[in-house]
Amino acid sequence: MSWTEERIDTLKKMWDSGMTATQIAEELGGVSRNAVIGKAHRLGLQSRPSPVKPNEAKAEAIAPAPKPAAQPAAAVAPAPRAAAEPAPRAATPAPASASADAPAEPREPSAPVLRSVGPGGFVRQNPGEQTPPISPAPPRRLVPAKPSDAIAGKTGLLDLNDRICKWPLGHPGEPDFHFCGDKVNPGFPYCVAHCGHAYQAQLPRRDRRPPPPLPFGGPRVR
DNA sequence: CCCTGATTCGC
DNA sequence: GCGAATCAGG
């Protein structure tokens, strides 16, 4: 098997949507997961959280190690990405739950951080502030290998790109499994509406809603 | 053990 | 460029 443009395209999109190398290899067929990983790196695709540490933590001297606040002061600064770094975007997965600010720390009105707040109450991250949340949990196995008729006109796996909502509709493996496909809320993998589902503000326990929406249709029994 | 992705290196 | 072998963390 060779890396045709089509297969490379599939690899890119699956990698981008959070599929594991094993799953991508199964989907493509004829290649091992090692081949997929190797190709992904050669293509310069975004690194995924690796189990292996790069080994780099020797900056702590005898200084009384002040705990760095989670919120840097330079929140409004534009993308501080190093110019030498070839990676155009860093999508290192991070827990969607943001730190719940204690009520004892009121925001200074004199120094407002420019943020927009979505319909679900989620707080929009400014550039360079924090890494965006990960895509929905990838399915363990089956992914529609071939576009079926049921998916015609809908946003399939191969239609994913950086500008459309990756919110999954239906269950992976089912014929009509597809993605939302709306225009994304800039900076997020989802559209505004689905950001509202994905990022819910922490509500008081008294009136919390029981059904938390789960990406990819939630856990499934087979 | 299983899984994962990263890296190396002979081809 | 390719990918098996190897490594290393979870």
TrEMBL record:
Composition bias type Low complexity, residue spans: 60-103
Gene3D superfamilies xref list: Homeodomain-like
TM ranges: none
Pfam families, per database record: GcrA
Family matches, as InterPro entries: GcrA
Protein known as: GcrA cell cycle regulator
Sequence segments annotated as region (Disordered): 42-147, 203-222
Organismal lineage: Bacteria, Pseudomonadati, Pseudomonadota, Alphaproteobacteria, Sphingomonadales
